[in-house]
Amino acid sequence: MIPQEHISLFEDYTANVLGDKERLEFEARLSYDSEFKSFYDQYLAVEKGIKEHFQKEYLKQRLKEADESLDAKVKTGKTNRKGIITACISLAAGVTLVFGIYYNNANHGKMVSELWPYEEGLPVRMGQSNTYHSGMNAFKLEKWEEAITLLNKFDSDTAKYFTALSLYQLEHYEDAAQFLSKVSKPSIFFEDAEIRLALLEFLDGNKIEAKKILNKIRRDKNHKHHDLALRILKKI
Q1: Where are the domains of the chain?
Q2: What is the pLDDT of residues 129-165, one digit of tens each?
Q3: What is the secondary structure of the chain as a DSSP string?
Q4: Whole-prediction pTM
Q5: Is 33 left (phi over 0), alpha (psi -120 to 50) or beta?
Q6: 61-112, pLDDT tens digit by residue?
Q7: Which homologous superfamily is 131-235 in?
């Protein structure tokens, strides 16, 4: 497995965002550190595989749609050479645009995943089998759907918070954000909900709203996630 710190460095190098000194050090290390070079080759292979797979699947669908469209025009006599060339150019432009969106979203998702605070859940008392404890136990066992079903039976900030975290794990980000926004200020989970909501806003492309929440946290030096907010602001 490629070490996480290497992945971040490889991303910066391939994105050409390293400074001249860092870039030279990186390239020098490739020449003398065989293990480092092996990890870099693995990284490039994985990236290439992702790109090729995505390109094949997307092009396959777009070409099918284009082919069906052209067939329809041929049958009705409404096509010409210029029209075919235009369709091909549009297809190529569409592929380029989708690649940009795909990798932008992938990078955002990776960053949010790395900065998403760990939550172990509340203690579950042995011998108590009520619905609330069952829901928390399901959360601890990472049975996300079961946790959501059980916790949704309670109208409390705690239930909303852990329901949101379960929805996040299932990649239902909009629903997770809605539950986090409902956690009230008196709740012990309010500050946790606040930082997570900022991350989800960023993930959804709402950078302005994300920065608004993060700056609010930054101004409160007593906030539980003050330092994390500063780190995120530097990244976005």
Answers
A1: 4-115, 131-235
A2: 566 788 888 888 889 999 999 999 989 999 999 999 9
A3: ---HHHHHHHHHHHTT-S-HHHHHHHHHHHHH-HHHHHHHHHHHHHHHHHHHHHHHHHHHHHHHHHHHHHHHHHHHT---HHHHHHHHHHHHHHHHHHHHHHHHHHHHHHHHHHHSPP-------TT--SHHHHHHHHHHTT-HHHHHHHHTT--SHHHHHHHHHHHHHTT-HHHHHHHHHTS-TTSTTHHHHHHHHHHHHHHTT-HHHHHHHHHHHHH-TTSTTHHHHHHHHHH-
A4: 0.53
A5: beta
A6: 555 555 565 555 555 555 455 554 455 545 454 544 444 434 444 555 677 7
A7: Tetratricopeptide repeat domain (1.25.40.10)
Q: Give the CA radius of gyration of the chain.
A: 24
Amino acid at 182: K
Please, which residues have CB within 8 angstroms of residue 109's CB and are 6 or more apart in sequence? 203
Angular region, 156: left φ>0, alpha ψ -120 to 50, beta rest: beta
